[in-house]
Write a structure and sequence with these properties.
Helices cover 59% and strands 15% of the residues. It contains 8 helices and 4 strands, in the order ααααααβαβββα. α7 links the parallel β1 and β2. The protein starts with a helix and ends in an 8-residue tail after the last helix.
């Protein structure tokens, strides 16, 4: 993140404005859409970061891209960023907005990575177990990494719980390399 303080301030301001206008959910959906567009289309990011393209041109291009897809509140916010020369930080602002929204709504993001895809019933059981351990709502994100071989890796609240076979194999390898059962001879 290039300027986290800037992103945090703009995201906080947008959340306050959206709450005043009773459009928090709409703006949240728009920010997730903007975040997805910037992740999937590097040309939009290049446009936003380009010092060569003038602000009025950027506003016209962005209006053409997002017209009818985002609310007027979000559109006005993007236009404000362009007019103030802050459009290069829009990707950071969308990420920070999503983070602050989750804090405001008391939602805890949880990521579970497994070697194979999990079925819905297993995911529901995991989600219920995590929800019983916390007072927050749980937003479960799944990922598949075949290198884990088996087990899972759970990331929640800046904590990592690694119960994968890959981790066990690495621990065993480290024990064999250390070999605590053979005394060190010189």
């Amino acid at each position: 993140m290039q300027n986290p303080r800037l992103a945090s301030r703009y995201a906080k301001s947008l959340i306050s404005l959206a709450q005043e206008l009773n459009q928090l959910e709409v703006v949240h959906t728009d920010m997730l859409f903007l975040q997805q567009v910037m992740k999937s289309n590097p040309d939009v990011v290049s446009l936003l970061k380009s010092p060569i393209i003038k602000a009025d041109k950027k506003q016209k291009i962005l209006a053409a891209i997002f017209e009818g897809r985002i609310s007027t509140t979000t559109s006005s916010f993007v236009n404000l960023l362009v007019s103030k020369g802050r459009e290069s930080a829009l990707a950071e602002m969308t990420t920070e907005f999503a983070r602050q929204y989750m804090v405001l709504k008391n939602i805890s993001p949880v990521k579970i990575t497994t070697a194979v895809a999990l079925d819905n019933t297993t995911l529901d059981v995991i989600k219920q177990k995590i929800a019983s351990e916390t007072t927050q709502q749980v937003q479960l994100e799944t990922a598949v990494n075949p290198e884990l071989i088996g087990g899972f890796v759970l990331e929640a609240n800046d904590q990592l719980f690694d119960a994968s076979i890959l981790r066990d194999l690495k621990d065993i390898k480290q024990q064999f390399n250390k070999n605590i059962y053979v005394s060190e001879l010189r």
